């Protein structure tokens, strides 16, 4: 280690690895991981969302898991709850749809209308 | 791709309560479910709430699982991580409201704290220098090396930081004096002896955030003009020694220790010295002798270590917690440091909360926090609906804080005014079942054992005081004992050579000051009001409550109780050894203790 520049590089690099432990205030994406959800491929959706957020360099949105949301015929289901916005639940979230939801809704701010199965009342 | 991180507390207390096997179960279960590449397990230093251990925190949710056992650790993986269901039985529930806390942010024990010294403890992997760097570690050293030594000392002076090892001496002044002292080489020493039997904050910092101390010692070396540092830790802290040793190796590898640090002309290195655990070796002059490989006995001050320390060279010696504040002071400035705490005692203080209190563990609060906040808001009050009686601070060198002072802001000066000391931060809560004479006797017994014997007032005086305390507790106290204890205590304070003897009478003098009536009850009425001192107790049977069940008679190991079935029983006082068994076993409340 010869310089502060090098120190900063290590900091940036490691912060990414510690990212899960930072406070994430802008919102959360909740993946339903009930038995039905897992059977329908919720795990793929979960990993796709995490990967896509990472690609888009988004670090202020939490990805968490929940139990079954009771919408079993539409599994995998994913809820996007951004701060100060009504929550939206998406159904049939496969790998590709999961990535669309991150890009269009979380990043772009536009609800992915064709995948919505439920919206929180405003 | 990592989707979750499991932070497992690997502080001393959690390891004792079974952390290692819990961690093994977690790792096994992750493998069984084939998600070991998605979920990372990280061991941290102490998370503070030691009596809730072993603790596992799941991120990103921050879900706080407590008292995890080998039997139920698997649920965290199979329920939470696989099925997305919070394991409600492992959440902390508020004793009064029984509300379940999801994260540490929902637990009053945590929300009232201000984490500075402990900011990385329980948050980072202490074995990862990268994680320390990610939390701005070693940036303070970088910044310091671009400043002049005098500017650094100026910032430390302005911060108002005072030594956390007990006496509260202004740290900046010590640095200034050591820098100004004639002689070379100079040395930097860290006091990690932590001799107060109730304290473990230094151990937690060394175990949970070792690099913060290495960074601070390097900054100190640059500021006072030293190239060699010594870390003095007691042998009873093997984990602290192991992690600190590892951290030194990493710091050398990264070039934060060694020659030409960060490309400058400054060179500095640290060696660990292990102490055998004598209380007196925490006293700075004794500690320095011990590092030199000599017997750890104190010497008269002056000369102070700043003038003549290790091998008679100028030496800076500070406590672990003192150093832990330094990097942040350099990074954030003196003003930032002063933004919490009181005018004369800025910053925070870490306390080891223990004794008769709901939540025990390590707490860091602003200086000036009241005892009420510590004991009731953070500590959750006294268990079992008992009454708060006193808090003992400063360990064997300190004294008590009474209910009258519950709302007094705690800092170095206010504690001194009421006859106790801050000490290193041990805080033992006592409830109505504690006998203050017995408590004082306990601490005095500790110093009698730990006196190095070099000077007579401490060696003989404390022994005499202890003998009188024993007599009092045994019901053999005599008229005039209180006055004698006071006089002898003052004499020991005035004439002892080092801080050990100069403070040893404090627990007795402080309890006499606030609880003289309890001493009087022991001496004149031959009664222990708290029913602690065995020899002053009488057990007897209340005739109209006794149903003659014979349980007590069968329980009494010395056959002091006689009586027939369904008849009132009697205790033969000449045979009774006051073991209390009959009192415990009687289901009719017929045994009286007084
Ligand atoms: C009997 C005795 C025991 C002590 N034990 C410790 C100790 O365990 N840790 C400590 O830091 N200071 C201890 N001290 C205080 C040290 O002598 C010294 O004041 C301190 O290390 C200075 O560091 P500071 O200015 O950062 O507090 C003890 C003092 C006495 C008299
Ligand atoms: S005061 Fe006690 S511990 Fe200190 S030098 Fe004298 S005998 Fe030793
Ligand atoms: S246990 Fe209680 S009730 Fe039974 S004989 Fe003893 S004193 Fe009486
Ligand atoms: S206190 Fe112990 S020794 Fe005394 S009577 Fe009760 S059981 Fe027997
Ligand atoms: S050791 Fe785990 S919380 Fe203190």
From TrEMBL, chain A:
Keywords: Iron, Iron-sulfur, Metal-binding
Keyword Iron: yes
Domain of life: Bacteria
GO molecular function: iron-sulfur cluster binding; metal ion binding
CDD domains linked to this entry: TRX_Fd_family
Protein's recorded name: (2Fe-2S) ferredoxin domain-containing protein
Organism expressing this protein natively: Candidatus Cryosericum terrychapinii
UniProtKB/TrEMBL annotation, chain B:
Segments forming domain 4Fe-4S ferredoxin-type: 537-566, 567-594
Keyword set includes rRNA processing: no
CDD domains, per database record: TRX_Fd_family
A Pfam match: NADH_4Fe-4S
Highest taxon in the source lineage: Bacteria
Gene Ontology MF annotations: 4 iron, 4 sulfur cluster binding; FMN binding; metal ion binding; NADH dehydrogenase (ubiquinone) activity
Keywords per UniProt: 4Fe-4S, Iron, Iron-sulfur, Metal-binding
SMART domains for this protein: NADH_4Fe-4S (SM00928)
PROSITE patterns: 4FE4S_FER_2, COMPLEX1_51K_2
InterPro entries the record matches: 4Fe4S_Fe-S-bd (IPR017896), NADH-UbQ_OxRdtase_51kDa_CS (IPR001949), Nuo51_FMN-bd (IPR011538), Nuo51_FMN-bd_sf (IPR037225), Nuop51_4Fe4S-bd (IPR019575), Nuop51_4Fe4S-bd_sf (IPR037207), Thioredoxin-like_sf (IPR036249)
Family membership noted in the UniProt record: Belongs to the complex I 51 kDa subunit family.
Name this protein carries in UniProt: NADH-quinone oxidoreductase subunit NuoF
């Amino acid at each position: 280690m010869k310089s502060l520049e090098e120190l900063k590089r290590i900091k940036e690099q490691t912060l990414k690895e510690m990212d899960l432990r930072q406070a994430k205030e802008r919102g959360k994406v909740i993946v339903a991981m009930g038995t039905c959800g897992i059977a329908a491929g919720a795990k793929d959706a979960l990993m796709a969302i995490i990967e896509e957020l990472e690609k888009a360099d988004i670090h202020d949105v939490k990805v968490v898991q929940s139990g079954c949301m009771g919408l079993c015929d539409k599994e995998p289901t994913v809820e996007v709850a951004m701060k100060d916005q009504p929550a939206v639940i998406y159904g049939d979230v496969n790998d590709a749809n999961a990535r669309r939801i991150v890009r269009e809704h979380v990043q772009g701010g536009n609800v992915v209308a064709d995948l919505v199965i439920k919206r929180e009342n405003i | 791709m990592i989707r979750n991180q499991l932070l497992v507390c690997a502080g001393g207390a959690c390891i004792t309560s079974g952390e290692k096997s819990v961690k093994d179960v977690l790792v096994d279960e992750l493998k069984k479910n084939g998600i070991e590449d998605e979920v990372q397990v990280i061991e941290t230093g102490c998370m503070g709430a030691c009596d809730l251990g072993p603790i596992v925190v799941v991120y990103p949710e921050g879900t706080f699982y407590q008292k995890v056992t080998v039997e139920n650790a698997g649920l965290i993986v199979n329920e939470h991580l696989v099925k997305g269901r919070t394991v409600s039985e492992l959440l902390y529930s508020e004793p009064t409201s029984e509300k379940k806390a999801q994260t540490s942010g929902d637990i009053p024990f945590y929300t009232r704290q201000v984490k500075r010294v402990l900011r990385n403890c329980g948050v980072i992997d202490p074995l990862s220098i990268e994680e320390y760097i990610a939390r701005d570690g070693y940036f303070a050293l970088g910044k310091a090396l671009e400043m002049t030594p005098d500017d650094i000392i100026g910032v430390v002076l302005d911060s108002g930081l005072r030594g956390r090892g007990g006496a509260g001496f202004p740290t900046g002044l010590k640095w200034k004096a050591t820098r100004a002292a004639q002689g070379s080489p100079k040395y930097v020493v860290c006091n990690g002896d932590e001799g107060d039997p109730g304290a473990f904050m230094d151990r937690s910092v060394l175990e949970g955030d070792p690099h913060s101390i290495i960074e601070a010692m390097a900054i100190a070396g640059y500021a006072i003009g030293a190239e060699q540092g010594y870390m003095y830790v007691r042998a009873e802290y093997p984990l602290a020694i192991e992690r600190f040793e590892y951290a030194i190796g990493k710091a050398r590898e990264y070039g934060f220790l060694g020659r030409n640090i960060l490309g400058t002309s400054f060179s500095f290195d640290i060696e660990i010295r292990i102490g055998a655990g004598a209380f007196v070796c925490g006293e700075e002059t004794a500690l320095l002798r011990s590092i030199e490989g000599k017997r750890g006995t104190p010497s008269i001050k002056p000369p102070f270590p700043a003038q003549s320390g290790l091998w008679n060279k100028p030496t800076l010696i500070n406590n672990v917690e003192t150093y832990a504040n330094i990097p942040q002071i350099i990074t954030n400035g003196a003003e930032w440091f002063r933004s919490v705490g009181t005018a004369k005692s800025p910053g925070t203080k870490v306390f080891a909360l223990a004794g008769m209190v709901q939540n025990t563990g390590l707490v860091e609060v602003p200086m000036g926090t009241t005892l009420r906040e510590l004991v009731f808001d953070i500590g959750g009050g006294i268990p079992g609906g008992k009454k708060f009686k006193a808090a003992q601070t400063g360990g064997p060198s300190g004294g008590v804080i009474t209910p009258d002072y519950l709302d007094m802001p705690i800092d170095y000066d206010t504690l001194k005014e009421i006859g106790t000391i801050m000490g290193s931060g041990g805080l033992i809560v006592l409830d109505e079942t504690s006998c203050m004479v017995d408590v004082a006797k306990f601490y005095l017994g500790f110093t009698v054992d730990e006196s190095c014997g070099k000077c007579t007032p401490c060696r003989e005086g404390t022994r005499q005081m202890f003998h009188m305390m024993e007599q009092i507790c045994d019901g053999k106290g005599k008229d005039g004992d209180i006055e004698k204890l006071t006089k002898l205590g003052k004499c020991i304070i005035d004439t002892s050579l080092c801080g050990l003897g100069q403070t040893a009478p404090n627990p007795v003098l402080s309890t006499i000051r606030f609880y003289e009536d309890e001493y009087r009850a022991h001496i004149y009425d031959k009664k222990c009001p708290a029913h602690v001192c065995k020899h002053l107790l009488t057990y007897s049977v209340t005739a109209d409550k006794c149903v003659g069940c014979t349980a007590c008679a069968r329980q009494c190991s010395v056959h002091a109780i006689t009586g027939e079935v369904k008849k009132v029983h009697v205790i033969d006082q000449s045979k009774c050894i006051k073991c209390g068994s009959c009192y415990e076993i009687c289901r009719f409340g017929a045994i009286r203790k007084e």
